[in-house]
Amino acid sequence: MTRDELCLKLKEQKGEISDLTNTVWKLKRQYENSIKKEGVSVKEHESLELSSLMDSCSEQFKRGFPDSNSRQRLFWEQQELYANKPDKRGMRWHPMIIRWCLFLRQKSQAAYDAISESGFIKLPSSRTLYDYSHFLNSDLGFQKDAFELAKKEAEKNGLFDVEWRRYVGLLFDEVKIHEDLVYDKHTGELVGYCNLGDIANQMMKFDTAQKETGAQSLAKQVLVVMLRSVYGNMCYPLCAFATNTITSDFLYPLIWQTVDAVQTGLKLRVLFFTCDGASPNRRFFHLHRVGNEELVFRTVNPNEPDHYIYFISDVPHLVKTLRNNLSNSYSHNKSRTLWRNGKDISWMHVVRLFEEHCETSLYNACPRLTRKHVYLQSFNYMKVNLAAQVLSSSVANAMQDLCGPETEETVLFLKTFDKFFDCLNVRSVWEGRNSRNPNMNPYRDRDDPRLEFLTVEVITYLNDWEQQVNNRRGPFTKTQRANMLLSYQTLEGIKLAIHAISSCVKFLLEEGADYVLTNRFNQDPLEQHFGHYRLKCGSNRNPSVYEVRNVLRTIRAVNSQAIGTKRGNTQRDPVDVQTIDNAKISRRK
Questions:
Q1: Fewer Cβ neighbours under 10 Å: the N or C end of the chain?
Q2: What range defines the domain where residue 97 resides?
Q3: Closest by alpha carbon to 310, among 505, 526, 510, 570?
């Protein structure tokens, strides 16, 4: 290099060194300010005791938990790191510890304070957690930041790795809330009025003007739309809306606006909608009827005209309604007189089996059949496991062996819908092998005989039943004949679930998926999500809109570490205790 080139090079290096020096001083000032704001001071004797305890137990703990990827090892290392910090204000907690602490604090602020202040373990301060839990605004409706966070969760779950993993479903349902108005000091608004987005709000204002009331109604329910992946563990609450009993005309624009945001913004592909059999949801499906279709179980995806979006009636809800239809047949409300093939399908057959061969007999023919299964009370009606255990092959086999021939149709009813639930509730790759139940194996072949059982045998069973009732001789009224069948809502839901889920299974296998788990098409994650709202309120089972907004914001930050309640009306998926999530958690600036 010439002398001029060397001088120019030296000048450039001096400028670069100056810039780096300024950056170092800037970072140092930020570090010192962070310590002042978020630091926690510890007494000297407490620090020495904790450090000596860590040093003496460290090697023994590592031998006890040799897997460096275990959560116990991570927790110990974080405690050890905190104890060895000369300045505790410089502690930087692992993202998974932050999520776990956010979830604990969401359960109970008082309990979290008691744990962190007890001295047994050290946890991030509430001030530190505040910045993580308040990364998103506490608001309902469509939020840009919430969708960006959903995209990060999709990437973390590998939904963009292979094309067929992009398929997701939308679960939507309403949770009952307490009518209340709360002043939000951050935004200066009153929280608690109905809010369904711009389009639906204009429709509500028009309805109010027509009624000439002029009063804005308070919300009685919150509609939550959740994104659930078919593959992976992503169950993310996308948006929520404060409603006053949602109707199909309000539901229609909200759902399709969500579909458009998911497909264009998140680059995911919506395959199905899942909801319960409430009348607004069924009317929403009927709005997509083309021509003289008898059963509307799919519609064309407007973003992908070559593909369909399928309508699924939640299978666990169907199992409960099936049990309720049977329990009201000659018993309880006596609103049904189920009859098929010349014989009654009666709940009294189940009662007789329990009283004669289970409760008073030395040999219990059905150990899982208890009084809470047979003599239903208000809360027992909500339990899916109680309904599934009554509609089981063990009860059917015991009834077939111990009761008379008059129970033949009840036995066939129990066996048919036991297999129906097993085929549509496949939860894991190994469950069928471990339980020795081939009906619970994952679907790997589009010609699987279980799909033929659902689409042919079950549908034929229901159609033959209806034909026999219509052809039954006698002076029966239209209402009496209808009571001899399952309710029309249940019949429609069963056929909807069978056709939609069978079509989804075949489609995914054709797209290249290795296997399909049918449990992924139900709305259990949404029911567990509602449990977080109710548990937050203590003895008050119905939260307010303000409380729902705050819990929703925290659950979005915690995501997969939000463990559902064990005593809910759905079965919780196994908790993944092996995976360590190192992804950074977003923080408020």
A1: C
A2: 21-133
A3: 505
